[in-house]
Batch of 4 targets.
Target 1
Amino acid sequence: MAKPAPKAASKPAPKTAAKPAPKAASKPAAKPARGKSVESDEDFALRSLQMAHEDNKRFDASDEQLLHFYEQMLLIRRFEERAGQLYGLGLIGGFCHLYIGQEAVAVGLQSALTEGLDSVITGYRDHGHMLAYGIDPNVIMAELTGRQAGISKGKGGSMHMFSTEHRFYGGHGIVGAQVPLGGGLALAHKYREDGGLCLAYFGDGAANQGQVYETFNMAALWNLPIVFVIENNGYAMGTAVKRSSAETEFYRRGTAFRIPGMDVNGMDVLEVRAAAEIAFAHVREGKGPVLMELNTYRYRGHSMSDPGKYRTREEVQDQREHNDPIERIKKELAERGKTEDEIKAIDKAIRARVAEAADFAENSPEPDPAELYTDVLVESY
Amino acid sequence: MSAPETTNDAPVVTEDTRRLNMIEAINEALAIMLERDPDVIILGEDVGYFGGVFRATAGLQEKFGKTRVFDTPISECGIIGVAVGMGAYGLRPVPEIQFADYIYPGLDQLVSEAARLRYRSAGEFIAPMTVRSPFGGGIFGGQTHSQSPEALFTHVSGIKTVIPSTPHDAKGLLISAIEDNDPVIFFEPKRIYNGPFTGFYDKPVEPWKKHRDSQVPEGYYKIPLGKARTVREGEALTVLVYGTMVHVAEAVCEARGVDAEIIDLRTLVPLDIEAIETSVKKTGRCLIIHEATRTSGFGAELSALVTERCFYHLEAPVDRVTGFDTPYPHSLEWAYFPGPVRIGEAIDKIMSE
C-alpha cells in the first residue's frame, strides 16, 4: 500500500494517532478531560452513547436479516454501477453522485427506523438512501434519466428525489441546506407528538456549513427528536478532511451544544445498525438530538466528472480489498452456511432487477413540455 | 371565526367599523390564524416572550402558549430552514425575520429550498410558510435597517411577494398568505406601522386612527393575493405603487391636483396585470414609484410589462421614481427617499409629453 492520504489511510481504524481508538479496550473516556480534574455528569452524558456502542458493537442479526442487508447493499452497488454506465452512454446528464462504498451506512441506519413514522432527509448523494427504503429502482433510475415516469417526473433529477409514502424528504443539491429542514421535520414530529424522529444526513464537507450549527443549537435548545448523521467519506469533493476541517473528529462537533456524539464504523452494516439502535432509543426517550459520525469511504469520484487526482489508486484499492461492506457480509453469510451457488443466485437476481430498471429508464418517455410550468406555485388554495 | 369561512371578500366597512393601526391589524390576523388552525406556528427572534421588536406578536405567546409562539436564536438561515421542514411535514409556520435587512443569511433556504421544493418533488412536497418581515426606510435606520429587497424575491419563481399598505389590507392579506400553500414573503412597510406617512417628513404624522383605511372588520376575512386595489380613480395618469409609497403618491397627486389613477399593487407576485393594463390603456401615461434601488428594481419589470402590453396606448414614456443606486443612507435619508419633490417633477414631465 503506497502512502495514501493520511485520514483515509487509517480507515477503518482511522484516527489512531489523533484519538483513542474505539477498538481498543480502553473506552473513549481516555480522551483528555481538557483540564478538568473531575468529570461532571453532563460530560458523561455526552459520551455515554459512545460507551454503550463500545459495549455492544455489532448488531446480532438473524440469518434472514443478514441476507436482507446483503441484498439491499448489493442492489445499491449494482444500481450505482449501472447508473455510472448510463451516464457514460449519455443517458444520464448533468450531475450524478454514486454511493458505491457507502452502502452500509444507509442500509444499517434506515433498517432501524420505524417506517411510515420516522422521516429522512439527505443531500445530493441520495440514490442509496432511496433504495435502502425499498423504493422501486425503476422510478429512481427513470428520475436519473429525466423521464416522466421518474419519481419526481424527471423534474428533480439525481440530486432531488422525494417520497411522501416513505417520508423521505429529499434529495437536496445545496451542500448542508437540508440540515435545517431536518430540524423543522423534527420540530413537526415533536409538535404533532407522533413519536417519530428525523434522520438528517450530511457529509464531512457540509459539516463546515454555518447553518448546520444553527440547527445543532436549535435542536439541542428545543430538545428535538433528530439524529444528525455525518457520512464522513474522507473527502469534500476533492479536498481531504484534514485540508478543510480544524476538527476532523466530527462526532465531537456537537459537544458545544451538549449533543452526544457517536463514532461509528460505517463500513460494517452490523456496527451501523447497532449504533443506530442506541441513538434512536436515546432520541425516542425524549433526550434530544444525537450526532453520529459514520466513517465510510466512497470508491468512485465525487461526481462523474471527478478526475480523482486528490487520492491514490492504491488507497481506493486498499479500501475495496480490505474494507468492503458487501464482501464483509458475503463472507459472514458463507460462514453461516450459505453456499456459493445461493449467493451467486442472489447476485444474478439483483443484476436482473437493475437491468430491468435501466431498460425502464431508457425506454420511458420524456416529460411533456407542459410539465415545465406545473408545480411552480400551487394554483389555488 | 365570526365571518363565514367560504368568502374571500372582506366584510363591508361602515362608519362604525373600529379602527386599528397596522401593527394591531397584523397582530389580530396572527391571533385569528392561531385560533383557527392548530398547524399555524409563529417563530422568530424576540417574537415570544418579548412580543416582537415592533410588537406585532405582543400577547400571542401568553394566549397560545410556547409551543405555538416561540423565540428562536439569532439564526436567520436556521429559522427559515426549520420553517421549510415544518411546512413540508404539514405545518404552517409563520417565521418573523426581524428586519428585511436580516433576511440574506436565509436567502439560500428561501431560494433553493422553500421556492423550489414543490417543483423538484413534482408536487409531492410543498413548503407553506409566510415569512413576515418589516421593510423599507424612513426611520433613519441607515443601510442595514431600511432596505427594500422585494425584487430579490420577485425574481425567484416559486415564491409569492406581498406588501400591504393599510391596516385593513394587512389583516386580510396576511390571513390569505398564511392559508396559501406556497411560500410567501410578507413585507410590512415599517414606516407606516403607526400612521400613513405621506413623504412630507417635516409635517406631523397623522395616526392611522384618522385614516379611512384603518377601519378593520372584526374576525376572519381574506383579501385575495393577486388583486390590486384602485386607491383613487383618474383619467390623466396611472401611478403604480405599493407599501409606503401608496400614501406618498396619493398625497402628491392630491397636493398638485393631478387627476391620477393610483393603483396599489398589494401583491407583486402574483401581479394583477389586468388592472394595470386596463388603467394604463385608459390614461395613456404611467408612473412607477418604489423606494428600492433603481437598477433591476421591481419598477423595471413593471415598466417592461406596461411597454409590452400598452405600447400603442402610451402618450409618454413610462417613467420611474425610485431610490438611488446607493446603499440606504442615514443622514441623507430624505434625499434618497423618492419623496414629494421628485415625484412631483416626474409627474410634470410625464404630463408635458
Target 2
Amino acid sequence: MMEVKRFGEKSLIIQFENIISIPVHQQVKNYYKYLLQSSMEGIKSISPAYNSITLIYDPFVTSFDKLKLEIENIEIDGDKELEQKVIEIPVCYATSLGLDIEEVAQSKNISIDEIIHLHTAPHYTVYMLGFSPGFMYLGGLDPQLFTPRKKTPRLQIPAGAVGLADQQTGIYPSATPGGWQIIGQTPVPIFQVNEKPLVRMGDQIKFKSIDLDTFHQLKNTK
Amino acid sequence: MSFEVIKGGLMTTIQDGGRYGVQDQGIPVSGFMDESSAQIANSLVGNSPNSALLECCQVGCTIKAHTEFSVAFYGAHMELKLNNHEVPQGKILTLTTDDILSIGFATKGMYGYLAIAGQLNLPKIYNSYSTYLPAKFGGYYGKKLETGDVVHILKPNILSNSFSVIKPQNFPQHVVLEALPGPEWNELPKESQELLLSTTYTISKDINRIGYRLEGESIPLGNKKEIISSGMIKGTMQITSAGIPIIMMADAPTSGGYLRALNLTERACDQLAQMQVGNKVEVRMKR
C-alpha cells in the first residue's frame, strides 16, 4: 500500500501503511534506497520516516504530477536482499553517567546488571533519523524496560547520553534539555558536522557495555 | 578584504537558500526566513538569488568596512545609516575602507537582509552557508555575529550606482495567510477545520527560526491526536495535542508527531516571518 500525496508547494509525501512494523520499515527502506540511487530529476531532499518518505523537489525542474507518476511506477526488486549493517555502540552504564539507572532499577525491582543485560541484548532497528541532527528512532526495546519519561525534564543532558522514554530507547547526539531517563553514556560521537554519518535509516544498532576506564580511554581518543 | 562586526545586533546570522540533501540525517534545511526579501537583496547587488548574506532579526548589526565593496539591504524597516547619515533600503550602497554601516531596530517587519556584492569567504557545511544555531554549525562558525568578528569577502564587487531602487515593502499588522491542506487535514473534525479557518490568531512571544506559535482559539482534535513521526517542512502547521497551532519555519525539525493540518504557501511563509509579536493572522485555503 502506497500513496503519493501533495505536501505544500514543492514537497510530497509517499505514505505507506499507517503502522510501525518491520515489513513497512522494509518497504520504506527499499523506496528510500531506490530514490537515493535513482536518476529522477529535481529531487532536493529525501527524508524517510517510520511509514513515510518526504521529498522536497525543485519546481523549476520537475512537478508534483511528474514525480507522482514516476514514484508510482517504481518497481522494487523484492528479491534483492539489502545489506544489513550492524553498528556496535559502546555504552558505559556506571551510575556516574547513567544518572537514572538506579531509579529505573528500583522502580522495576530488578538489578542494574539486569537492565544492562536487557538493554545490550537486542539488535535495534534504526527506523529513522529526525528531530535533531543525528537523532535515531530505534525499535526493538525489551518491554521490561518500557519507562515513563521524567516528570520534569533536565535542563541539560550531555551529548552521548543513552536514555529510555516510554517504548523507546535512544542516544542524545548533542547536549540538550530533555525528559528521558538516562541509563548510560557513549563515548563515541554520534553526530559530527560534515562527517559521514555513523548510522543511516535501516541500519541495526547493538549496544555494548563498557566500564568507566574504557569510557574515558575511548572518549580521549576521539 | 573583509568587514568587521562592530555590533552584532539581536541575532544576525549568515543564511543562504538552504541546506538540502541531508534531511535523512535529521538536519534541518535552515536558510532565509523571508526568502523573497533575501533574494531581492541578493539580486540588487548582482549575486545569484540564493547566495549567502547577513540576516538581521529585529535589531540589526553595525559593520565597518576594511575594503571597498557594494551592499544592498532589503526587508524589515530597519533604520539604515552609512557613517551616521540615513540611507535608503532597496538600493546599491558602496562602502569604502573605514565606512560604518549601521542597521537599527525594526519598526515594521522582523527580518532584514544585507547582501554583499561578491562572495563571503566562509566554509560550506553540507553544501550550504546557512547558520543552524541549535547545533552550532554553518554560517560564521556556527554562531551569530558578534562584536569583533571579521568576515572575509572573496572577490568583493564595486557596483556603479544604478538608478534602480526597489521600494520598501508594506508590512500590515493583520495578514491573511494562504495555505494548502496538510497530510492530516481530513483527520480534523469539520467544525475544527472551520474554526481554524475563521479564527483571527495573534502572533505569540514564542516565535523564532524554528517555529511560530499562534494564540487564539484552540482547535479540538478528533480521535487522532498524534501521528507516527513523519516529515515536516517549512510552512507546516502542526496542531499540538492541546490544540495549539504551531507553524514550522526555516529551522524546522525534519520530523514531528503532531497532526499536520496545513502547509502555508511560500509567499505566506515570507509574510509570517515578517510578523511581529501581537500582530494578527488568519489562514485561508489557497484556491
Target 3
Amino acid sequence: MKNILVVSWYTIREAMARKVFIFFSGISGLVVIFTAVILGVTNVDSIVQGFAGKNAAPMMAEIVSKLEIAITTPLASLGLLLAIFASSSFIPIMLEKGNIDLLLSKPVSRTQLLWGKYLGGLLVVFLNIAILIIGVWLSISIKFSLWSFTFLWSILIITFTFAVLYSIIVLFGVITKSSMFGMMIAYLIFLILSPLLKFGHGDLQNIISSEFWKGVIDTLYYIFPKTSELMSNTILTLAQGQGIENYQPLWTSFVFLAAMMFISNYIFNKKDF
Amino acid sequence: MNTIETTGLTKVYSSSMGRRRVQALLDLHLSVPQGTIFGLLGPNGAGKTTLVKLLLGITFPTVGSAKILGENINNYKVKKRIGYLPENHKYPPYLTGGEVLNFFGKLSGLEGRSLEKKIDELLDMMKLLKWKKTKVKNYSKGMMQRLGLAQAMLNEPELIFLDEPTDGVDPIGRKEIRDILLDLKAQSKTIFLNSHLLSEVELITDRVGILNKGKLLQEGTVQELTDKEEYLINIDEESGSLPDNINTSILMKLNKGKYSLKVNDIVELNKIIDQMRGGGVMINEIIKHKDTLEDMFINLITESEKENQA
C-alpha cells in the first residue's frame, strides 16, 4: 500500500507540473468567485417574493438546484475533457525507456505501479472537482440559506465518471505505450457513444420496430459505461436532494472499469520492457 | 557464494505478429561471485542490456532461469538489495535532484530522517549537494550520470548493476567513479558492469564476460583472457639462417628481418632464442607485446563474426 501511495503522490506532482490542471483549477476558482460576487449583489429574496408570493420556499429550493446544475455540470464536463487530455500521457511516460527500467528495478510490484499511477490521476481530478463543487455549493447555500448536502455526492459521481474513462486510457496506454489512442477512445465514449446509447436505450426504443436491433443497442448500452447518464441524470437528482434513484448506470459502469483495469494489470504484468 | 547465477537463460523477442524473431540471448550459463566487479563486454546488440533486464525482471526469459542473491528473479522483493543505473535513464524533469532521490529512496523502502541523511551523503559524494534543489532538467549529462549513480547506491545495495556508468562523464569524473566502485568492492558489494570502455573495464574488473549475438564467447579474469604473450624479434637475417625445426605456427615473418613470435611463457621464448642463436642468427631486438583486453576483444569478436558468416 505504501508503494501505491508513493507512486500516487508523485503522479500528483507530475499532474501539477502540467499547466492543464492548474488552468482548470484557475477557471474553477474564478467561477466560484464570480458566482459569489453575482449572488452577493443580487437581491434574490425580493425577486422570488415577486414571482411566487407566499410559496417562495419551494421555488427557492428549485432555484438552488437549478443554479447548482447550471454552473457545475458544464464546468465539470469541461474539467473532464481537460483531465482526459492531461492524464492520457501518465502511463505512456511511465513506460518510456529509461523510466520504466528504473521503476521496475525497485522493490515495487508492477500491480502497485499501475494502481499508483491510476489512483494519483484520480486524486488530482477529485481535488479539482471538489474545489469547483464545494465552492459553488457554498456560494449558493450561504446566499439562499438552503443546505443541500446530497449535492456534494456529485463530487464522487464526477470523479467516478473520470475513473471509468481513465481506465480506458490506462488500458490503451499499457498496450500501445502511446497517449493518442486511449485519449481518442475516451473522448469517443464520453462525447458520442455514451449519449447515443443513452438515447438508443431510451427514446429510440419506441421508434425502432426490429427486436434484433433493439437487442443490439441494449447489449451495447449495458456493455459500455454510462458516462452520459452519470453526468446528467444522476447529478440532477443529487442537486434536487433526492439522492441516487437509479444505481444501474453506476454498477454497470463499475463493471466496465473493473474489466479495463483487470486487463490492463494482466497485460502490464506480462509485458517486456 | 555466487551473487548471480543463470541457467540456460534464453530470450527471444518476437514482433507483435510473430513474424520477426530476434535471438537476444542464447543458453547463458553465468556465475558472478560475491564481492567482485564483473564486466560484461560486447558490441551493440550483443545482449548485454537484455541480460541485465532479465535479471531485474524488466523483461521475462523465454527459457531458463536465474537467481540473484539466492532468490529467484521473479521475486521483486529481492530488489531491496539491488541498485541499478540504466543506460539513458530518465528522471521526471519537474523534480529537483533531491526529490528524485527521495522518490526512488521511498520506492526502495527508505523513509524519514535516515533517507534525508543518505540523500545528502550521496549528493555530497557525487559533488551534487549544491545542486540538490535544482530541477534535473537543468542538469548536464555528467551531472545526470552522477545523480544516477547516487540513485543506484541509495539503499546500500549488495549488488549493483551499472550500464555505461561513465557515459558523458569527464576524465576526472570517471576516475572518481572508478574509485567509488573500487570502494564498494572493498565493502564486499558485487558490481555488474556493462561498458564499451574496455580500457576502463580492464582497470577495475575482476572477471569479464564477452557476449556477441546473445552468446557468451568467453569468461574469466582479465589475466586469463589476455594470457598469450607476443614478442617482436628483430634479427639480422644475413648473419645466419633460422633453424628448420622452428614451429612456424608461432613465428610469423612481418617484413625483412622482423618476426612476430607468439609464445605462452618465457621458457618457450628462451627455447626459440637458443635455437636461433644456435644457428648463428644475430638478434638485434626483442620487444614484449602483451594483448590488451581491447586486442583480445576485437580478435574474439572478429573470429566469432567469421564463424557466423561461415
Target 4
Amino acid sequence: MVVLPHWMIALPGESGEDAGMERDSGLSLGGDRFPRTRWSAIVAARSENAAERDCALETIIAAYWKPAYKYIRLKWHKSHADAADLTQGFFTKAIEKNFFHDYNPAKAKFRTFLCACLDGFVANEEKAAHRLKRGGASQILSLDFQSAEGEFQQLEIPVAESPDAYFEKEWVRSLFSLALEALRAELEAGGKGIHFQLFELYYLGAEDESEISYAGLAARFCITTAKVTNYLALARREFRRILLAKLRELTATEEEYRREVRALFGHNGQD
Amino acid sequence: MKPLSDKMVTRLRAAVELPELEGERYKILRPLARGGMGTVYLAEDALLERKVAIKVTNIADSSGELAARMWQEATIIARLEHPGIVPIHDLGQTTDGRVFYVMRLVEGRRLDEYASQTESLAERLRVFLKVCETVAFAHASGVLHRDLKPENIMVGPFGEVMVMDWGVAKVMPRMTTDEVDDRSRAHAMLNTHSGNGTAHGTVVGTPDYMAPEQAAGRTDLLNERMDVYSLGAVLYFLLTERSPLVANERATFERSPIAPRELNPKLPRAIAAICVKAMSPDQNGRYASAQELAAEITRFLDGLPVAAYRENVFERVGHWLGRNRFLVLLVMAYLLMRIFVLLAFRR
C-alpha cells in the first residue's frame, strides 16, 4: 500500500483543502517560495492606517509608474514632458484622493482598474487643460522620467500591439526590473555580490545565452565550475522568491495571485 | 541598470521557471512540453549516462495543489507496469519546493501526428488496439485515465504505443465487471475517503474527448465507460481525422456527433458502428469495458462480424468468402478441373 504524505489527503475542492496543505509534512510544499503570511499593497492601499497606506502606495507606484508613463506616451500620443507631467499628476492625485480605495478585486484585475483610472484622468486633464498648473505644483514624486523615456525610445513597439497589451508587457518588464534591483540589493548586502554578477552576466550579459558558459564564467571569476553552478542556483532561487513576493504584494487576493502567476508563466491549459 | 529587453525578460522568466535540481543526478537540458500542471524537460541522468524526461510542477502552485496531483500521478503510473505506460524511475522534490518525477524518455509521434502520416486504416486500428489494451490494463488495476486524447498517446518508431499523462487519473476500488451497476454507491464512498477524490461537479479532462457525464461533472457515474467514451472519441479521430466536437459545430455533450461515415463515406459500416457504440451518450449503450471494445476491434480486423453492426446477407457472404479465401479458391480450382475433364472426355 502506498503511504501518501498527509498533505495529499486533502486536495483542493475537497473539505479542508487548504488546511491540509498548511501542516508540516515530509515535503514542505511551497516552502520558502510561498510564505503563508502575505502582505498585499493593493489591500494595504485601502488601510485606515496612514503609514501602512503610504508604504503600499509607494510599492504600487514603484511597479506601475513606468508602464503608466509609457502607456500615456503610446496611447495618448503625448510628448515626453506631457506624459511625465500626467504620470506625476496621476499618482499624486491617486495619493491625495486615495483612488485605489475604490478597487474591488472581485470585479477586475488591478491593472485593468488602474488603466481605466489613468484613461479617465488623462481625458479629464485634456478637457480641463490644467497641464501647466499641474506641472508647476505637483512634483512631489521622485520619478526618473528620463530613464523611462530612454526605454520608450529604445524598445521596439510592435505596430499591431494595442495600448492595453503594451501596458501589460511593460508591467511585466517593470516587475522583473524591480525584482532584479531587489536581488542586487539583497545579495550585495549579504556579501554575495559575486552571485549577482554571475547571474547578471549569465542571463543578461549576452544576446544569446549559449555565448556564455559556466566554464567561461568560472575562468573569468577564478572559481570552480561547481561554484558557478551553486552560486547561480542560489541567485536564481532568490530571484524567484523575490519576484513571486513582489507579485504577491501587487495582487489583492490569493486567487488573483495564482491567476497572475499562471498568466506570467503561460500555464493556462491543462496538461 | 540598463532596461530589460524583451529577450532578457524571456530569459529571466525561463530562469525563474527552471527547476533547481542541484545535488540531484539530473541535469536539465531543455523544456519539451508545457501543460497546466507541469513542464516536461529533457534531462540527462549523470549516473546512468542516459537521457530521461523529467516532469516538474509549474511554479504557479502556491497552495501545493499541483504538487499533490503530481505526486499522485507518479504513484499511479508507478503501480501500472505495462509496456504501454511510461515507466517512472524516480520521484522527488526540487530545492525550490516543486515536485518532480523522472521517467523514460519517450521518442515518437503523437497519435494525431501519426494519423496524419498513416493512410492505412488497418495500421491505425492496430495502434488503437494497443491503446485499448493499455487502458484495459489500467482499468483492471483500478485506474481510470479520464483524459484520453490523441495528444496524450505516443506512437514509437516500431509501432509501440504509450498512453501518457495520467495527471487527472483516478484510482478506483477494484471491482469485477458484474459489479459495474453498483458503482455509484462505491464512488460516493471513494469520494468521501480517498485522497484522489474529485468533488461532484468538478470537470476534469479535455472537452473534445470527454464523455457527456464527465463534462457534466457527474462523479457518481464515474466508471470505465467514461474512458470507453474517450476511446471511442479517439477512434472517431482516427477514422475522420477530426475530434467529435470539431466535426460537429452544433455538438453538445448531450448530442451525438456527426456519424463518422458522413465525414468519410469510404469507411466500412462495421467500424463506424463500433465507434458510434463506444461514443453512445448513454453509458449503458457503450461497451462495458475497454477490453470489450478491443475485442470488437480485433474481430473487425479479423474480418469477423462485430456486435455493433448487424450485417446483411451479402455482407455476411462477402465476409465469409474473405475469411475462407483459400478454401474457396481450392473449391473453385477443383470445380474448374472437373469442368475441364468433363469437356475433354466429351470430345
